[in-house]
């Protein structure tokens, strides 16, 4: 059976509301226990983010669900010809912040698209790699001929879980016990890192008749969970031996007073491992594909923080060469860390920038710290 070439023929982006500058973050997320954060300035100084987007009004009222934002991104793909939305035969949606545990995120997105037909819908779970898993599923479906017009999407709505009211019970409990009423850094750290939004790709087996397309040369992934313990986690608590205790094993009171449902990060484990492990698989892929650093015209690494920029640069030493910063394309500073959507955001902005020329190659790298997974993709402008 011959396999199809697969092309990204359009990309889209949906950002909720207006950009939120650093000084205004707590006007949206709130003050935990009524007190300004002690760690906010330190985290922001290191991550380099200047603005981000929240699906919230000031005061914390929700303006959009994750599913609604994703549906708007899908709709945006076909704004010039809305009838084409009826032709899609696969919807593949990745996120780490679904609005509910059940039904799946993908079918909720489909529910906000009444103009679409009855189609196959998939919802890969995970963290930052979830959007890339959705992308790969759509790619493989078109490549095999199982789908002709597929939509892949990545999205996040982290802001709902970052609001102060999710932590107030823990802070009050600490105060009652005459302890420091500030929540631990592993919980507060991510309040100043994460952003909301959605983005989507239209994938098909033919390039655009006019204008540019992106041919998908390959998408690959790897997990190191067999050798690494959990680093980023939610709805559970990490134990002293590195294992995870599920929220299902806590009492309702403990869930509130220990902020069990919050997103947490083992910062020490992250800093020591996230970058070195990312280079291991990439070197093997390059050797197999006969690629060198000089073949890459644009490098799109998903970074949670500008802190990792020089560290990612250094992992290129495994190739005995480096991708110079002038060939990097990153929009973390203006859009924030949008997890499963970040790779989509970078590809979208570059695709719409007018900078691309036929024959150029884009290397996408997405690390996921949850238990150290990575996704890689090579796209060629055509």
From TrEMBL:
GO terms for biological process: secondary metabolite biosynthetic process. It comes from the Bacteria. InterPro entries: ACP_syn_III_C (IPR013747), Thiolase-like (IPR016039). Residues 287-364 form the Beta-ketoacyl-[acyl-carrier-protein] synthase III C-terminal domain. One of its GO terms (molecular function) is acyltransferase activity. Keywords: Acyltransferase, Transferase. This is 3-oxoacyl-[acyl-carrier-protein] synthase-3. It comes from Parafilimonas terrae.
């Amino acid at each position: 059976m011959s396999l199809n070439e697969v092309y990204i023929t359009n990309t889209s982006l949906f950002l909720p509301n207006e950009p939120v500058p650093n000084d205004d973050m707590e006007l949206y997320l709130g003050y935990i226990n009524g007190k300004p954060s002690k760690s906010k300035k330190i985290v922001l100084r290191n991550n380099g983010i200047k603005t981000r987007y929240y699906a919230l009004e000031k005061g914390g009222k929700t303006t959009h669900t994750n599913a609604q934002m994703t549906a708007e991104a899908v709709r945006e793909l076909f704004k010039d010809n809305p009838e084409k939305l009826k032709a899609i035969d696969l919807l593949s949606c990745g996120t780490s912040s679904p609005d509910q545990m059940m039904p799946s995120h993908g079918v909720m997105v489909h529910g906000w698209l009444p103009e679409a037909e009855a189609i196959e819908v998939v919802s890969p779970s995970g963290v930052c790699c979830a959007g890339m898993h959705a992308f790969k599923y759509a790619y493989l479906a078109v490549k095999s001929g199982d789908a002709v017009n597929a939509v892949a999407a990545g999205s996040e709505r982290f802001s709902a879980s970052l609001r102060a009211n999710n932590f107030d019970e823990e802070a009050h409990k600490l105060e009652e016990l005459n302890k420091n009423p500030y929540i631990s850094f592993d919980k507060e750290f991510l309040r100043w890192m994460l952003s909301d939004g959605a983005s989507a790709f239209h994938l098909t087996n033919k390039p655009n008749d006019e204008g540019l397309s992106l041919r998908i040369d390959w998408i690959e992934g790897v997990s190191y969970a067999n050798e690494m313990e959990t680093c980023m986690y939610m709805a559970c608590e990490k134990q002293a031996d590195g294992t995870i205790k599920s929220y299902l094993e806590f009492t309702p009171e403990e869930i509130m007073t220990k902020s069990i449902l919050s997103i947490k990060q083992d910062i020490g484990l992250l800093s020591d491992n996230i970058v070195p492990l990312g280079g291991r698989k990439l070197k093997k892929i390059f050797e197999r594909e006969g690629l060198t650093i000089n073949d890459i015209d644009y490098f799109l690494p998903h970074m949670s923080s500008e802190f990792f920029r020089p560290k990612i640069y250094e992992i290129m030493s495994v190739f005995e060469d480096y991708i110079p910063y002038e060939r990097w394309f990153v929009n973390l500073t203006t859009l924030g860390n949008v997890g499963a959507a970040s790779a989509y955001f970078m590809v979208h902005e570059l695709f719409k920038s007018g900078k691309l020329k036929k024959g150029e190659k884009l290397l996408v790298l997405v690390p996921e710290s949850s238990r150290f997974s990575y996704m890689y993709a090579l796209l060629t402008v055509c």
